[in-house]
């Protein structure tokens, strides 16, 4: 067994064991309410994909559809190149880690982890070997003979993880697996889940509503809202190139300006003209992140030149937040604090702008 | 809370009430215990000499013995049938859609709500037409219907407290529906199944109304024998031996149930 405990986000998997998952126009309707609405999504083999979204956005429903616990109303679901929409959950070979762990209370740790092998009729000595292997992977080999009731929450989570990987599932689903753990433990577990996934080349679909967790762990993040997929992209692109105002507002702070764009000029609803790199034309929303905003001499000649009055300043750790009243409306800016700069006094007038290359235009959004 | 609400006086009254109530509940059962082990024929509550002659009579006298054996057989067959049907029914209902489940649950619980007399007459008319009055298995079947709710109720209650996700987890790990029932659900339900079985057995063992209708001249169950004994020659002391034995049986069963449930409760709680 090759170890890959040092590799974390960004390195290539050593071997790829997982298969791809593809959603084609998959919908789940309850009455006339769409919990999942025409989902199109392609998860690559060995990819770590997070599903992120506010409460009720349909994240759990997506996982349950993949696992087979709820049946889709329409659409297709492919595991590798096999349509699994009609296959019962126990024949899908997909590992699931539940938020509450769902370990069997009447079985000890060893029997819990061995359960999927037992039901597959694996010989006893082979089961023992594989169980030990899985327990080692989650650093729980010393706990093999414990009862489930004798384990802490974090330990139970590790056992649930071991049980879900021991039968080499084609994909691994996790529904907010760390939500019940405290912050430190959560970070340790994030690291371990990620390195385990890397070393096994496991396809993982991971539901969370913790942005930081999604960004830390994932190759790509799928953002959902109201049952609809908003955007699937790398953490960096979700931040810099959000597809719509919902995604822009979901990841960090954003100054959103609505208007229309034409020939490299964005005109706000109030008629202010701003330079952009977008060459398409039509109604659009311009997204400017607070940290893109620069003041005074830091501005270059091609930056928009605007003035604003300081409404409020706040220190948050090493970062200074400045709220400005401007012709564009309220604008939020942040600056890194170094020893030479002081917070501008309230009421001060500041000249500001941003690099037009960084401003991001979202077409067709109002 | 009560201490502040009631005051000293109030607490004394409440305590006295509780004692009286409890005595009233258990005394009728308890007075028979000393009577059953007293040597003489009269019904004195504090006996002078002890003997097991009434127990000997229960086993020794062929009429009593036959009644005892028959009742044990009926109770055993009926409660086993009810347990199998009740457990499967409870699992089935837990998987049905909420509307269907509601109706089914009502049907399964009905034997507890409908008066025994009504059920007795109903079965009697049915069996009379089919010439089944006075036969062993039909009587067991009728008793099985009667005691079905005693199994359904505890098993359903337990099913609802078991996390649905354990079932899902089993499925995701490759266990089909039957394996999930045998490997996950039944082990977790075991204490409540046993409890249901015991309630069913005890109820059937001393059920007299329906038995009266269905046993015809040939089948004399123990409660029927007791009933007839009382009607014919006044109270026979063998009856006190029967009731004491029943009491003992019930107490032992309850002890086993409570110990078992406490142990499995600590297991189940930790999974949440
Ligand atoms: N069995 C059901 N019947 C009717 N509506 C349902 C059912 N299950 C889920 N829903 C609805 O579908 C929507 C999506 O639910 P889902 O559990 O997928 O949300 P979620 O994104 O996982 O939310 P959370 O972050 O709170 O877990 C919700 O509005 C929910 O009320
Ligand atoms: Mg959820």
TrEMBL record, chain A:
Belongs to the ABC transporter superfamily. GO terms for biological process: putrescine transport. It comes from Nitratireductor aestuarii. The keyword Transport applies. PANTHER family: SPERMIDINE/PUTRESCINE IMPORT ATP-BINDING PROTEIN POTA (PTHR42781), SPERMIDINE_PUTRESCINE IMPORT ATP-BINDING PROTEIN POTA (PTHR42781:SF4). This is Polyamine-transporting ATPase. One of its GO terms (cellular component) is ATP-binding cassette (ABC) transporter complex. Residues 21-251 form the ABC transporter domain.
From TrEMBL, chain B:
Residues 68-260 form the ABC transmembrane type-1 domain. Signal peptide: none annotated. The keyword Cell inner membrane applies. One of its GO terms (biological process) is transmembrane transport. Keywords: Cell inner membrane, Cell membrane, Membrane, Transmembrane, Transmembrane helix, Transport. Gene3D superfamilies: MetI-like. Its main location: membrane. It is found in: Cell inner membrane; Cell membrane. Belongs to the binding-protein-dependent transport system permease family. This is ABC transporter permease. It comes from Nitratireductor aestuarii.
């Amino acid at each position: 067994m090759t170890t890959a405990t040092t590799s974390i986000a960004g390195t290539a998997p050593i071997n790829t064991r997982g298969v791809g998952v593809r959603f084609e126009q998959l919908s789940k309707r309850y009455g006339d309410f769409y919990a999942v609405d025409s989902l199109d999504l392609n998860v690559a083999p060995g990819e770590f994909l997070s599903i992120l979204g506010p409460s009720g956005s349909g994240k759990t429903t997506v996982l349950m559809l993949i696992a087979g616990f709820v049946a889709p109303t329409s659409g297709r679901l492919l595991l590798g190149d096999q349509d699994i929409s009609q296959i019962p959950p126990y024949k899908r070979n997909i590992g699931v880690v539940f938020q509450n762990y769902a370990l069997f209370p009447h079985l000890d740790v060893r029997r819990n982890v061995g359960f999927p092998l037992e039901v597959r009729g694996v010989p006893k000595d082979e089961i023992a070997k594989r169980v030990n292997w899985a327990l080692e992977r989650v650093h729980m080999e010393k706990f093999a003979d414990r009862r489930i009731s004798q384990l802490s929450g974090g330990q139970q989570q590790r056992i649930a993880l071991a049980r879900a990987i021991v039968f080499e599932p084609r994909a691994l689903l996790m529904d907010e697996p760390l939500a019940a753990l405290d912050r430190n433990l959560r970070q340790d577990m994030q690291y371990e889940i990620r390195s385990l996934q890397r070393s096994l080349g496991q396809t993982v679909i991971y539901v969370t509503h913790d942005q930081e967790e999604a960004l830390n762990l994932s190759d790509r993040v799928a953002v959902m809202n109201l049952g609809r997929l908003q955007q699937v992209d790398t953490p960096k692109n979700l931040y810099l190139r959000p597809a719509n105002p919902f995604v822009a507002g979901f990841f960090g702070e954003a100054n959103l300006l609505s208007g229309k764009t034409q020939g490299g000029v964005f005109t706000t609803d109030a008629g202010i003209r701003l330079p952009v790199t977008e060459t398409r034309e039509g109604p659009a929303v311009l997204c400017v992140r607070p940290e893109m905003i620069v003041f005074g001499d830091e501005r270059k000649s091609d930056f928009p030149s605007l003035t604003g009055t300081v409404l409020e300043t706040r220190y948050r750790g090493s970062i200074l937040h400045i709220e400005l009243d401007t012709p564009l409306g309220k604008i939020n800016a942040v600056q890194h604090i170094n020893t030479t700069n002081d917070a501008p006094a309230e009421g001060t007038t500041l000249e500001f702008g941003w690099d037009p290359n960084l401003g991001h235009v979202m077409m067709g959004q109002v | 809370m009560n201490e502040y609400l009631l005051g000293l006086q109030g607490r004394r009254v409440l305590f006295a009430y509780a004692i009286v109530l409890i005595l009233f509940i258990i005394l009728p059962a308890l007075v028979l215990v000393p009577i059953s082990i007293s040597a003489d024929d009269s019904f004195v509550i504090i006996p002078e000499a002890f003997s097991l002659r009434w127990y000997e009579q229960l086993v020794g006298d062929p009429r009593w013995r036959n009644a005892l054996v028959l009742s044990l057989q009926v109770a055993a067959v009926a409660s086993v049938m009810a347990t199998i049907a009740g457990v499967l029914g409870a699992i089935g209902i837990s998987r049905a859609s909420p509307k269907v489940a509601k109706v089914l649950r009502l049907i399964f619980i009905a034997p507890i709500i409908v008066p025994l007399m009504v059920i007795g007459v109903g079965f009697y008319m049915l069996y009379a037409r089919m010439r089944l009055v006075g036969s062993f298995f039909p009587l067991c079947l009728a008793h099985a219907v009667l005691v079905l709710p005693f199994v359904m109720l505890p098993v359903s209650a337990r099913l609802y407290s078991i996390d649905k996700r354990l079932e899902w987890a089993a499925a995701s790990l490759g266990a089909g529906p039957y394996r999930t029932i045998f490997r996950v659900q039944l082990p977790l339900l075991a204490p409540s199944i046993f409890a249901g079985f015991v309630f069913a057995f005890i109820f059937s063992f001393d059920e007299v109304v329906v038995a009266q209708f269905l046993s015809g001249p040939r089948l004399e169950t123990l409660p029927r024998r007791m009933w007839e004994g009382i009607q014919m020659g006044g109270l026979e002391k063998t009856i006190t031996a029967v009731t004491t034995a029943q009491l003992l049986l019930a107490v032992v069963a309850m002890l086993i149930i409570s110990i078992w449930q406490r142990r499995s409760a600590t297991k189940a709680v930790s999974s949440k």
